[in-house]
Design brief:
Elements lengths: L1 E5 L23 E2 L1 H8 L3 H9 L1 E4 L2 E4 L17 H6 L6 H5 L2 E5 L3 E6 L4 H8 L7 E6 L7 H17 L6 H11 L9 H9 L6 H11 L10 H16 L2 H4 L2 H22 L1 H13 L2 H14 L1
Parallel strand pairs: 1-6
Antiparallel strand pairs: 1-7, 2-4, 3-4, 5-6
The structure holds iron/sulfur cluster (SF4).
Length: 301
């Protein structure tokens, strides 16, 4: 089976102490059972500190967040004390993996990098050449599944439509929606902002952005088409991948387009990098928020 990754995957590096919105703040961080066991049995003063700051339970453990919801091992310089004391190999699976995500299929695995990370967002948005996937691992075993092959063929058409730089951007979006038999509900962006305001929230600065969008109902304009292409490619790549399993291809395509527009609307307030980071953290990491938006899309088209 092959493993594919974004063509810029290997260029990603955590910027650690320079990160303004560390993923070690504000999120509940779980520890897999094997790593939890290792932490529990770590000797010395650092082992004691691990035991005092982890809630161990049946499924492994969870870091007990400090004030301001910081991971207890994130030091004042923005560096990880677990890496400093025990080395990178001592990280739990979630810490080691984040912000990478995986699309699992029967016949392949695909790896992407989530935009909730500002370093990942910058890497994607600054990319000039069309995004693509490349094979990073191949165990030689082939699994041919016709349903998945159909999905990959359709997705290829969607990506080709998006990356056809000869065409105006609006036409490319229309072609993507047509290819997926999808349509966005007819709502202006002030209505969408009101809907997004009712969703689960992590950061109140997202509320401020949505309040400004409420007063700006028109389609986003004046965006850079190359970064817009990368952004929409990412949303399609990430969210269409569930379609072979839940059958919601058209809703997911519409959701990807809506996510793109909402991020560009947010970018009018806070700039494109921060808009991508905020949108991804607020929406993409909440299954509940995604489900609500998919349901609204399916009810109204
Ligand atoms: S959000 Fe990204 S750059 Fe920031 S600490 Fe996490 S992985 Fe590193």
């Amino acid at each position: 089976m092959k493993t594919f990754a974004l063509d810029f995957y290997k260029d990603f590096h955590c910027i650690m102490g320079d990160c303004k919105h560390s993923c070690c703040i504000g999120w509940e961080i779980d520890i897999d059972p094997e790593t939890a066991e290792y932490y529990k049995n770590t000797p010395g003063d650092f082992g004691k500190r691990l035991c005092e700051n982890i809630d161990f339970h049946e499924e492994g453990g969870t870091f007990c967040l400090c004030e301001n919801e910081r991971c207890p091992f994130l030091n004042e310089k923005g560096l990880c004390d677990i890496i400093i004391n025990l080395g990178e190999e001592a990280l739990s699976q979630v810490c080691d993996d984040h912000p990478r995500f995986r699309n699992f299929f029967e016949s392949r695995t695909e790896i992407g990098i989530g935009l909730c990370c500002e370093a990942a967002a910058k890497l994607l948005i600054d990319k000039k050449s069309p995004a693509t996937l490349e094979v990073i691992d191949d165990d030689g075993e082939e699994t041919e599944l016709s349903e998945e092959a159909e999905f990959f063929a359709l997705r290829k058409k969607v990506f080709s439509a998006l990356q056809n730089r000869e065409k105006p951007f609006g036409d490319r979006i229309s072609e993507i929606l047509k290819t997926c038999s999808a349509r966005l509900p007819e709502k202006d962006f002030s209505v969408w902002a009101k809907i997004y305001k009712k969703l689960e929230r992590l950061d109140e600065s997202w509320t401020d952005v949505l309040e400004k969008i409420e007063n700006s109902p028109e389609l986003p304009k004046d965006f850079d088409e190359t970064s817009a292409e990368q952004l929409l490619w990412y949303f399609l790549f990430r969210h269409l991948s569930e379609a072979p399993f839940d059958g919601r291809l058209s809703e997911r395509a519409a959701f990807a387009v809506l996510s793109f527009y909402m991020t560009e609307k947010a970018a009018e307030q806070v700039g494109i990098y921060e808009a991508a980071r905020l949108y991804s953290s607020e929406i993409e990491y909440s299954d509940e928020n995604i489900e609500i938006l998919l349901d609204i899309i399916s009810e109204e088209v």
